[in-house]
Amino acid sequence: MKQFFSCLLLLAAFTGFSQTSYNPGFDARQTGVRFSDPLRKKEDSLRRQFREKGLEWPAKYVYIRSFKYDSQLEVWVKSDKEKPFQLFKTYKVCAMAGTLGPKRMEGDYQVPEGFYYINEFNPRSVYHLSLGLNYPNASDRFLSDAIQPGGDIYIHGSCVTTGCIPVTDGQIEELYVLASNAKALGQDFIPVHIFPVRFNVKRSVDYLNRYVRDFADYSYLTNSMREVFYYFEKNRQIPVIMVNGRGSYVLDADVRKALPYADRKADLPAVVKKERKLVPFDEQEIPTTVHKLPEFPGGAKAFRDYLKKLNRELSPYLNEDQHTAYVLVEFIIDKDGKVLNPRILKGGNDQLNEYLLDELEKMPDWAPAIREKKTVPMKLKQTILIEADKTPDA
């Protein structure tokens, strides 16, 4: 029951539902009705900025999204639930702790990645002002350290951090006033989405792709965040986001189907068809029988894990009408265990196959085949299964 309630709160936060019966950590005196003199002046400034940008004051709905690698924080606003959000301002995040990837335990200095909401307003913060986030959320409680997942994650002033999102004092004053007024007007769940990168900036996505190759499990989170990013880019509305039984974020099926395929692939690194030179090799040296077949480093289980990794990395390259591809590949393991001359025999598509050949050419050395106690070359064929949508089901 507790798990179900957490998911409901998460759902409400992402869709902008007003749940007036639930006011987490909020004092009515902090709603904007009784701002201090400096914040009243900031409210006057915001009113003027809204007027200059043609925005309706006050904003009844606020949406904040932050991009870790790009060090940016956007503020989106609207005054009608059915209308699209409009960008008010982009702030520079003035310090950042940790690396790409989610927060998973106390003391890791990581800024979380995921879908959160503001659950605390602190006008007496040691960092000028602060807005608390509901980390750990329903997903984090599944996937983070069970005993010490960490906490106390804020957007705050003072430009210092050990795992929060810091901005300047003037910027946190603006955020504080905007969020307080939206709260007072009924938006109990003010969503804050923390993305690893801007998924429509090539330099940022290239960096993310290199990072994901070393941390393959991270791809589940980045894929779901990518979909939310593109949904919002297209619709300027926040989609329904849920947490499944394994702690993964899941978009509503109809929402996922509505995502343009081109958008979902827009951030993939470009794959250029290249001329590949074969290593000279006399295939007559390959014996017809051996006493021991070549072995991938780490054995059969390690090879299965390698194939699963290829599946995760290659699935975005499936064509729109492809749900599954069986790609038959062939390569030689020479007597020193080197992988030579990989080629595609059938299956896949042009982009997918180019990426796959790139990966096969970087395959680690194998333990070579053995015949009569001597190492010998061997030609191998392998079918690689590529499936779309590998996110675990609920």
Structure commentary:
Mean pLDDT is 84; it is low at 1-33 and 390-394. The chain has helices at residues 2-15, 37-52, 138-143, 169-184, 202-214, 218-235, 253-258, 261-265, 300-314, 350-361; strands at 61-67, 72-78, 86-92, 114-122, 130-133, 154-156, 165-166, 191-195, 241-243, 249-251, 324-333, 339-346, 369-371, 374-376, 378-387. It is elongated. It has an 8-stranded mixed β-sheet with strand order 3-2-1-8-4-5-6-7, sandwiched between helices. It has a 3-stranded antiparallel β-sheet with strand order 12-11-15, covered by helices on one side. A two-stranded antiparallel sheet has the order 9-10. By secondary structure, it is of the alpha+beta class.
SSE layout and pairing:
Layout: H1 2-15, H2 37-52, E1 61-67, E2 72-78, E3 86-92, E4 114-122, E5 130-133, H3 138-143, E6 154-156, E7 165-166, H4 169-184, E8 191-195, H5 202-214, H6 218-235, E9 241-243, E10 249-251, H7 253-258, H8 261-265, H9 300-314, E11 324-333, E12 339-346, H10 350-361, E13 369-371, E14 374-376, E15 378-387
Parallel strand pairs: 1-8, 6-7
Antiparallel strand pairs: 1-2, 2-3, 4-5, 4-8, 5-6, 9-10, 11-12, 11-15, 13-14
Characteristic key phrases:
394 residues, alpha+beta, L,D-transpeptidase catalytic domain-like, TolA/TonB C-terminal domain, 2 domains, eight-stranded mixed beta sheet, three-stranded antiparallel beta sheet, 10 helices, disordered N terminus, disordered C terminus
